[in-house]
């Protein structure tokens, strides 16, 4: 690619061996990168441009880490197509993995929900055990 065109090419080179969906996605990322850099010619692109774009995705767009990695892979492919070194361009801020709190139920909540289950979802052995425990308590 001599220049990032305003319209991305229709496909990647045949020797790339990417699926149609991967090609479409990578070309979309290259187009968004072109828009971000205001369509600078490839010779004028610096490592800072790549870093700024990846950091922009993480910080301002709040993309998931997998999305940022996908954009990075597309840019790496783009750089290889330009026959430029990849290494110095990937020192960007990484998107944060969203931490999820585990859902923990108390024993009472588990018992209550187990008794509310209808056929065929409830567990007979569990219900029989719970009923036996209740009879012992009385």
TrEMBL record:
Q: Say if the entry is tagged with keyword DNA-binding.
A: yes
Highest taxon above the source species: Bacteria
GO MF term set? DNA binding
Q: Name one GO biological process term.
A: DNA integration
Question: What's the protein here called?
Answer: Site-specific integrase
Kindly indicate whether the keyword Methyltransferase belongs to this entry: no
Q: Which Pfam families would you find in this protein's record? A: Phage_int_SAM_4
Q: Which UniProt keywords apply?
A: DNA integration, DNA-binding
Gene3D superfamilies to which the protein is assigned, alphabetical: 1.10.150.130
């Amino acid at each position: 690619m001599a220049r990032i065109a305003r319209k991305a090419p229709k496909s990647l080179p045949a020797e790339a061996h990417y699926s149609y969906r991967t090609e479409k996605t990578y070309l979309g990322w290259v187009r968004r990168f072109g828009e971000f850099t205001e369509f600078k010619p490839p010779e004028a692109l610096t490592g800072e441009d790549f870093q700024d774009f990846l950091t922009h995705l993480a910080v301002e767009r709040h993309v998931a880490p997998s999305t940022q990695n996908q954009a990075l892979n597309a840019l790496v492919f783009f750089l290889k197509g330009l026959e430029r070194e990849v290494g110095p361009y990937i020192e960007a801020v990484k998107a944060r993995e969203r931490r999820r709190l585990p859902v923990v139920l108390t024993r009472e909540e588990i018992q209550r929900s187990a008794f509310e289950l209808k056929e065929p979802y409830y567990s007979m052995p569990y219900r029989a055990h719970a009923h036996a425990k209740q009879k012992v308590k009385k």
